Amino acid sequence: MSKKPNYLATTNACKLCTPLGACLAFKGITGAVPYLHGSQGCATYMRRYIISHFNEPIDIASSSLSEKHAIYGGGPNLKLGLVNVTKKYRPTLIGIATTCLTETIGDDVHQFLQEYHREVKGDKPIMVRVSTPSYRGTHMEGFHDAVTAVVASLTTAEEQAPATPADTAEPATPGAEAPINLMPGLVSPADIRYLKEIFADFQLPATIIPDLSETMDGPAAQTYEKIQPGGTPINAIRAMGHSRASLEFGHGMGKHSAGMLLQERFQVPCRRLPMPMGITASDLFFAELGKLSGRPLPAKHALERGRLVDSYVDGHKYVYGKKAIVYGEEDLVVGLTTLLAEIGVFPVLCASGGKSGQLADAIATATAELLPEPPQVFEDVDFFDIAELAASLEPDLVVGHSKGYSLARRLAIPLLRVGFPIHDRLGGQRVLHLGYRGAQHLFDLVVNAMIAKKQDDSPVGYAYM
Amino acid sequence: METALDERQRQIHRTGQQPFELVCNQDSLAGAVSQRACVFCGSRVVLYPIADALHLVHGPIGCAVYTWDIRGALSSGPELHRLSFSTDLQELDVVFGGEKKLHAALLELIDRHQPAAAFVYATCIVGIIGDDLESVCRTVTAERGIPVIPVQSEGFKGNKRAGYTAACNAMARLIGTGDTTGIAPHSINILGDFNLAGEIWLIRDYFSRIGVQVVANVTGDGRVADLQRAHGAALNVVQCSGSTMDLAHLMEEQYGVPSIRVSYFGVEDMAQALYDVAAHFEDAEIMRRTRELVKEELTELLPKLEFYRQKLTGKKAAIYVGGSFKAFSLVKAFRLLGMTVVMVGSQTGTAEEYQELAAITDPGTIIVDDTNPLELSSFLEEKQVDILVGGVKERPIAYKLGVGFCDHNHERKEALAGFHGMLNFAREVHASVMSPVWRFTPRQGVWS
Question: Is the preceding omega at residue B299 within 30 degrees of 0, hence cis?
Answer without folding.
Answer: no
